[in-house]
Design goal:
Blueprint: E1 30-32, E2 35-36, E3 39-40, E4 53-57, E5 62-67, H1 72-91, H2 94-110, H3 112-123, H4 127-150, E6 154-160, E7 165-173, E8 176-180, H5 186-199, E9 203-207, H6 214-226, E10 233-235, H7 240-249, E11 255-259, H8 262-272, E12 278-282, E13 287-291, H9 297-309, E14 319-325, H10 329-342, H11 361-376, E15 380-383, E16 406-409, H12 416-419, E17 426-432, H13 435-443, E18 447-448, E19 450-454, H14 458-465, E20 472-475, E21 490-491, E22 494-495, H15 500-506, E23 508-516
Parallel strand pairs: 1-5, 8-9, 8-11, 9-10, 11-12, 13-14, 13-19, 14-17, 16-17, 19-20
Antiparallel strand pairs: 2-3, 4-5, 6-7, 7-23, 12-22, 15-16, 18-21
Helix pairs in contact: 1-7, 2-4, 2-6, 3-4, 4-5, 9-10
């Protein structure tokens, strides 16, 4: 089966969608369109195979279709539809909104296989990761926020005996929400934003990454099938500097949620400030793992390696700096190199593949430039350091965007490699002698998203965690997420928090009402 055999065609009839099997009719070329006011829109030139912007399969280095390239007028149309739908959706009882979201979650679970296949082909990620983690998590996002919405109608009642008054704090939907999601976890992070917005009663104008738009397009047909009213969810595809900018600047979008680069997040903050928009920004990271002298490396080494190379290092939470006690440095490097070299690289559509391709040629070039810069700066390259040898790949993937897992050491704390986000399968190792030095190294960064501490000493773990300038700290684990807890970072890693009630608060406005009896 070729990469064009994506089983992702939605047949929409009477508001319902069906994803056909790989053995049924398949389009010659994938064509991803906008979804506005409950309807899919055709691309501008239906006769051009890659109308709009190209969609690629990065593992095979081939164009597999096109995605619509919207503009400010497209965003205006989406906002108009969202505003028309807002009064009804905002006044819908939380239980009714929750029921729609639960139906949508069930449909995602029903269609895990076509969604996972599309995710793997469009993003280059191992299909097992999409099938077992990312697509199920998208369903869980809707189900979690459906449950949360039913408990979030009001905050509290207060009695003031002295004034004989009673106060109530009520939260209502903030309005039309603008949601902009990244390319690395396409469906997972797209739903992470739109699920709480919809649960809170907002209508949504969303922009998935133009690099990985396929599963967001598929989700729209499932939203139709789930009975989401027209105009409640609108998806506009296109370039970030066109469609994303139009969403950020739109005067009728009062609340924004963005995940992406720090540079773009800074621009959004500047643009939104004069209009007093509510903004949540989840941006870059340079996450450190602090490994103390007593760490049980034989037990934790697999998890530490996973934190460095999961999804080819293209997760904002991935570890990129390993800070290890000097007595364990060589053991750590040896263990990490062994596991990096053992990762099964191959066609992302094969269930056995553990390391897929990067998302595209431009990003591959960026990661390779970072490795070359490290080497020029005197780094020792313990493994990797270049593209995957084509002889290790299936013939169809010989020209794909693969980079070998790379372990570096010998760089100072202020080298660009230890300070700038690489967002690939690249990790550096630095050693320390004292706990204070470890904390200083970990905090010596303009980023502050996440960190991990590896030790058998619970008191030391708590002591260090409390001093780390980050939004998330794990001890002896990585990426274990309780969706009730806040998610986000400090410093240049973000502004605001997502997850749990923090997300619902972001998409709502509080109103205090007091009655004297």
């Amino acid at each position: 089966m070729t990469s064009r055999d994506l089983a992702v065609v939605g047949v929409v009839a009477a508001g319902r969608a069906r994803w056909l099997s790989p053995h049924g009719y398949l389009p010659p070329v994938l064509r991803v369109t906008h979804f506005i006011d409950g309807r899919f829109q055709e691309l501008a030139d239906a006769n051009t195979p890659a109308a709009g912007l190209p969609i690629t399969n990065p593992a095979r280095a081939e164009v597999i279709g096109g995605v619509a390239a919207g503009d400010a007028a497209t965003v205006d149309a989406a906002v108009a539809a969202a505003r028309r739908a807002l009064p009804s959706w905002r006044s819908t009882a939380p239980a009714e909104r929750a029921a729609v979201l639960r139906r949508l979650a069930a449909l995602i679970e029903r269609d895990i296989e076509p969604l996972a296949r599309a995710e793997s082909e469009n993003a280059g990620k191992p299909i097992t990761l999409a099938r077992e983690v990312e697509v199920p998590r998208a369903a869980h996002n809707f189900r979690f926020f459906a449950d949360a919405a039913e408990r979030f109608d009001f905050e509290e009642h207060l009695e003031d005996a002295g004034s004989n008054s009673r106060s109530r704090v009520v939260r209502s939907a903030a309005g039309v929400a603008g949601c902009i999601s990244p390319w690395n976890l396409p469906l997972y992070l797209f739903t992470w934003k739109i699920a709480p917005a919809l649960a809170a009663g907002c209508t949504v104008v969303a922009k998935p990454s133009e690099v990985t738009p396929v599963t967001a397009w598929m989700l729209c047909a499932l939203a139709q099938e789930a009975g989401l009213p027209s105009g409640v969810l609108n998806v506009v595809h296109g370039r970030g500097d066109v469609v994303g900018a139009a969403i950020v600047r739109h005067p009728e979008i009062p609340v924004l949620s963005f995940t992406g680069s720090t540079a773009v997040g800074e621009w959004i903050a500047r643009e939104a400030a004069p209009h007093f928009k509510k903004v949540a920004l989840e941006m870059g990271g340079k996450n450190a793992a602090v490994i103390l002298a007593d760490a049980d490396l034989p037990r934790h080494m697999d998890e530490i390696a996973r934190s460095c190379f999961r999804n080819q290092g293209q997760i904002c939470l991935c570890t990129s700096r390993l800070l290890v006690h000097e007595s364990r440095r060589d053991e750590l490097i040896d263990g990490l190199v062994q596991r990096a070299r053992a990762l099964r690289v191959g066609d992302p559509l094969e269930a056995s593949t553990e390391l897929g391709s990067l998302v595209g040629e431009a990003h591959q070039a960026k990661v390779m430039a970072a490795i070359d810069q490290a080497r020029a700066g005197g780094a020792t390259v313990h493994c990797g350091g270049g593209k995957i040898d084509p002889s290790r790949l299936p013939t169809a993937c010989a020209h794909g965007c693969f980079v070998a897992p790379t372990v570096l050491s010998g760089l100072g704390a202020h080298s660009p490699t230890n300070r700038e986000e690489v967002f690939g399968p690249v990790v550096t190792v630095q050693s320390f002698a004292t706990e204070a030095q470890a904390i200083e190294l970990a905090n010596d960064s303009s980023y502050g998203l996440a960190a991990s501490v590896w030790t058998e000493d619970a008191a030391a773990a708590a002591r260090i965690a409390n001093q780390l300038e980050v939004g998330i700290v794990w001890t002896n684990c990585w990426m274990v997420r309780d969706l009730r807890t806040p998610f986000g970072g400090a410093k240049r890693s973000g502004l605001g928090r997502e997850g749990g009630e923090e997300a619902l608060r972001h998409f709502t406005e509080p109103k205090s009402m007091t009655i004297r009896r």
